[in-house]
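ok here's Transcriptional regulator, TetR family, seq below lol
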Amino acid sequence: MGLHERRQREKESIRANILDAAFSLAKTEGWGSLSIRKIADAIEYSAPVVYDYFENKEAILYEISLNGFHCLHIELLKAQKKHDTPEEQITAIVDAYWKFAFKNKEYYQLMFGLGMQCSGKGLMKEEFSSFQDMIYDCTYEIIKKKGSNPDNACHSSHALFSAVHGLISIMMMRNDDIPSTMNKTTLDETVSAFVKSL
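and the structure came out like this:
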């Protein structure tokens, strides 16, 4: 391995360590307490080294949120591929989305700005609309099968996304006084009623 390749690999390693340290700190202390100084201390470098790789804390948060959307996208695709009909797919996709949110709370909070400012404000995230797009595709196919008006697919799928995201947000922000089983039952009933209404 040449000197240039070695330096490049070292840079990539430091960059990855910065992101890993930031995410680990968020898991233990919350996103609100994250700082460049804490990240630098965690990787045993000075703060200026962190700034060599990222312009500011917002840039680090944005990068982590992109990774969250990528991981979510993979889970949604896995769920979709297990089923053939749009009715089964939409149920599986919503369920995978729900599971991802609570298995990866730190990611979800950052991705959608729950209890904090949403990272990357004004910047397009390639996979940001993955869930909405998949919900729309299934909705459109169900409507087409039923012979209903396909023009309603956009509005209907957005309504379902809003309901799912709303339930997750409520549960994450008020999980002490709302039983998780109640919310999951509400979610399942909402999806079932949604499919029947199309």
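fwiw The mean pLDDT is 89. kinda neat tbh
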